[in-house]
Amino acid sequence: MSDTILETRSLIKEFKGFVAVNDVSLSVKRGQIHALIGPNGAGKTTVFNLLTKFLSPTSGHILFNGTDITMERPAQIARRGIIRSFQISAVFPHLTVLENVRIGLQRKTGMSFHFWKSERSLDRLNERAMALLTEVDLASFADSVTVDLPYGRKRALEIATTLAMDPELMLLDEPTQGMGHEDVGRVTSLIKKVSANRTILMVEHNMNVVSTIADTITVLQRGAVLAEGPYAEVSNNPLVKEAYMGTVDADTGVMAEGKAHG
Fold it and tell me: Which domain holds residue 124?
């Protein structure tokens, strides 16, 4: 099996003459954490939308495990094992933490629409659901109603529900956005923990997070690849330094507005 799990070739996306993604060629290695970074408007989320087929590329190709998936639909992409979590926490607020994970497991087992069945019929999923909650340090919150969870714990739950889909490739869209320092640290450690035997592609603004856990970093600017490589190499790239001059908050590590934005 190839070392490359996901590849894009000359990916282009235009919106009425505006080029949002411009000739982007990515190579995501199996088993790595690969971070996609760049200022607001750099095209990061558009790339994610192309990979999960919420958008179709104007031109170019997307390959997963060597198979061209460019023309496949979102449901087909998910069945292949490419599972995405979103910037805004996507969980059911009035269900318990355990019930949220169980819904993810239902989808994987083909029981998604068995809502008319008694709750007991779903109890066989509880053991696996609890194992996933333990993996993300949420076992003690299993019976809590999700709406009552602190924000950082909700993001951990979202990772658990993503894991319930048994992803081969996890796409994490700004997993630490809006978090305080303690939650950022907890979720960063969690991502590193669950990356064992998995591949993760993440969009992230927090450079402290990226420098801590990312194996490879791709920097986008105005829809094009500006640089790529390990953090030590990318952070010393003169083009990256120029693009990010004065835009990273020294205390939080988060990119602020600067001349590279737009």
Answer: 88-166
If asked whether residues 62 and 101 sit together in one domain, one would say: no
Low-confidence ranges of the chain (pLDDT < 70): 1, 86-90, 107-122, 245-262
**Backbone φ and ψ of 17, nearest 5°:** 95, -20
- Residue 132 and residue 164 in contact, taking contact as beta carbons nearer than 8 Å: yes
DSSP state of 177: T
User: Which DSSP state fits 18?
Assistant: E
| 101 lies in the same domain as 25 | no
Of 143, 166, 189, the residue at which a domain comes to its end is 166
pTM greater than 0.90 (yes/no): no
DSSP 202-236: EE--BHHHHHHH-SEEEEEETTEEEEEE-HHHHHT
CA dihedral 172, 173, 177, 181 (to 10 degrees): 20
Are 58 and 175 part of one and the same domain?
yes
Q: What is the pLDDT of residue 109?
A: 57
